[in-house]
Amino acid sequence: MTDDEMHRLRRELVESFTEAQVAVLRAVRAELSSRRWQVMLEIDAAQEDLRSALHQSGSPESTRRLASVQVRLQRAHEQLARIPEDVIPAF
Length: 91
Hints:
With 91 residues, this protein is mainly α. The protein has helices at residues 3-56, 60-81, 83-87. The longest helix is centred in the N-terminal third of the chain and has 54 residues, at 3-56.
């Protein structure tokens, strides 16, 4: 094998490896996005249940605790919304 052929083969391997890495990162990003949406939908459902419980709650202590949980769920929802963009940039 000549030096030119070796150089070409190495270049092709590097390019293929880079393309494979990009493909893996795209797949990981898509999976993160899919799971993130599943969790966000669960949080949305939990927040609806909390809103209903807040309206039905009779005791001030229960209302305070439910409101606290609602705030934490909203914060988690907001943080989840940024995961794919923050963790793996789009290619």
